[in-house]
Write a structure and sequence with these properties.
Blueprint lengths: L1 H5 L9 E6 L5 E6 L6 E4 L9 H9 L2 E4 L6 H10 L3 E7 L6 H8 L4 E2 L5 E7 L8 E4 L5 E14 L31 E3 L13 E5 L11 E7 L1 H4 L13 E6 L1
Parallel strand pairs: 4-5, 10-11
Antiparallel strand pairs: 1-2, 2-3, 5-9, 6-9, 7-9, 8-9, 11-13, 12-13
Length: 250
């Protein structure tokens, strides 16, 4: 929110609305309009996007930008898509292996931003137990940071970045193995994005991070598999690969 507030005029925003919690745990609404002082008011609820006030905020906005709780990410995406809004949402990559996310990605209703997929640090409350590091501030207080891996930006806004994967390796049956019990099926396991073979025309099970730079002119997405489905029998050398996206060269 601070970025949009500091660049309000530069971005030519018609208005800026933010929902949050104050120090007393009460939901509040912040509104900034051109040539007017910002206004802050208390909410009836806590600002949850599933409340009547939260739904109204989504309905009235043009663009939704937020870092939702990852456990509610799919619910928020469903809400903004239902209201046909543009969005820029920070999420956790494993979320995109689910059926509802699969449909949005394959139908090109959602894609990914510039920063790729990696670990990100978040400021967490003092009582938070899982602390990656702690910094002592000039006033003697401390700030805790927690690190979360596989973070990416999901959006339906225009993204001008190179797409596609640079294929430099050849198919090697010793490295690109078939699934246990499915040796006669034309599906191979790709252990890393850098290991996608350029000379294999069958179906490949690639890491979910393949989606970050997926080029639909280079590969078709055949389907997805999450950990639950894999553990029902699809293993490689007795091990369960993490969530995979099934791809095939066009």
């Amino acid at each position: 929110m601070r970025y949009f507030e500091e660049n309000f005029d530069k971005l030519h925003l018609a208005s800026l609305t933010a929902y949050g919690l104050n120090l007393h745990g009460r939901g509040f609404k912040y509104v900034k309009c051109p040539n007017k002082p910002p206004r802050t008011s208390l909410l009836l609820f806590n600002g949850d996007f599933r409340s009547s006030e939260g739904c109204a905020a989504i309905r009235d906005a043009d663009v939704i930008v937020t870092n939702p709780p990852f456990s509610l990410f799919r619910d928020l995406v469903g809400a903004v898509v239902r209201y046909k809004k543009q969005f820029l949402l920070m999420g956790n990559m494993p979320t995109f292996g689910t059926k509802d996310m699969e449909r949005l990605v394959t139908n090109r209703q959602m894609w990914f931003g510039y920063t790729g997929c990696g670990a990100v640090e978040f400021v967490v409350p003092e009582h938070y137990q899982k602390c990656h590091r702690m910094v002592t501030n000039p006033d003697g207080t401390t700030t805790k940071f927690a690190k979360n891996s596989s973070i990416c930006w999901a959006t339906n806004l225009p993204v001008n970045k190179p797409l596609g994967h640079n294929l430099t390796v050849k198919y090697d049956p010793n490295e690109h193995k078939k699934y246990d019990g499915l040796e006669e099926v034309d599906v191979i396991e790709v252990p890393a994005l850098s290991k996608i073979p350029h000379d294999y025309n069958g179906v490949m099970a690639a890491p979910l991070t393949f989606l970050i730079n997926w080029d639909s002119e280079q590969f078709d997405i055949v389907g997805f598999a999450d950990g639950k489905h894999i553990k029902r029998g699809l293993t490689v050398d007795g091990e369960d690969p993490f969530r995979r996206v099934y791809i095939k060269r066009r």
